[in-house]
Structures are given as C-alpha cells and as structure tokens.
Design a protein that fits this description.
By secondary structure, the chain is α+β, with helices and mostly antiparallel strands. The chain has helices at about 5-15, 55-65, 85-95, 115-120; strands at about 25-30, 35-40, 70-75, 100-105, 110-115. The chain contains four helices and five strands. It has a five-stranded mixed sheet with strand order 2-1-3-4-5. The longest helix has 12 residues, at about 5-15. The protein is globular and about 40 Å long. The protein binds tetrahydrodeoxyuridine (THU). Tetrahydrodeoxyuridine (THU) binds near residues 19, 26, 42, 55 and 86.
Length: about 130
C-alpha cells in the first residue's frame, strides 16, 4: 500500500462525510500493522462540539476491529487545500503507536511525516507504566 493509495482511500471516505454545518469534508485511511486499511469521515452534530473528526473515525473503526498497532494515517480534505490533523487526533494517533501521517502538501504531492514531528514530547500510554 503506497502513500498515494492510502490518500486515495481517504479521499473516497471523505465523500461519505456528514458535515452539514461546516461543509468541510474530511476523510482518513488507517493502515494497520497487519496491512489492513480502515477508513472514516468526519461526522458532525447539531451540538457542534460533538463532531467527530475523520481521523478519529478511522482509528475508532480500526480499534473496533481489534487493531492495536497502526502504521500510517492518511488524511484528505475535499473542501480546502491543506488538511493537517488537529491536536486531538494527533493525541489519539499516539495511543496506537502511529508512525507516519500522510497528507497532500501545498504542491499536491504526498507529504509523509513522522508523528513525532507533529506531536513532539507527547504523553502516551508508556507514561502510565
Ligand atoms: N476535521 C477533521 O475531520 N479532521 C481534522 O483533523 C480537523 C477537522 C473536521 C471536523 C469538522 O467536522 C470539520 O473538519 C471542520 O472543522
């Protein structure tokens, strides 16, 4: 599974976004350590603060399928140029040992970065012993 293929899976998931309030469709694709791909889209709510991000949706789908180790998360937004995961989603990624986050860079090419760059000095499960 290439970064580009994972981004394409994320873009496809974004078409199922439920985002009537922001009209900002986001999709994510998770590559589990066993090679399986899980996807999710953002799901908004009339109580705005109850919205779920695409990355969290996809990670939740993976975890519910039994995944505990994720290699890569790809995120794509269909209604904006740049989709960099929010802070809360970065923390959720940290819990499942995500190594790489892929998005489209400003030049339209896949931009893969280590999670440690996006979330330095993070708090994770190892801190609890
Ligand atoms: N959103 C995501 O799905 N992922 C992010 O990392 C940032 C924001 C969603 C939440 C909300 O439905 C919409 O984008 C606008 O913030």
């Amino acid at each position: 599974m290439t970064d580009k293929e994972l981004l394409e899976a994320a873009a496809e998931a974004a078409t199922r976004s439920y985002s009537p309030y922001s009209s900002f469709r986001v999709g994510a694709a998770v590559l589990a350590a066993d090679g399986t791909v899980y996807t999710g889209a953002n799901v908004e709510n009339a109580a705005y603060g109850s919205a779920v991000c695409a990355e969290s949706s996809a990670i939740t789908a993976a975890v519910n399928a039994g995944v505990r180790k994720i290699e890569t998360v790809a995120a794509v937004c269909l209604d904006g140029e740049f989709c960099s995961p929010c802070g809360n989603c970065r923390q959720i990624m940290q819990e499942f040992f995500v190594e790489t986050v892929v998005m489209y860079g400003p030049d339209g090419e896949p931009d893969a970065r280590p999670l440690s760059e996006l979330l330095p000095m993070s708090f994770g499960p190892e801190a609890l012993g």
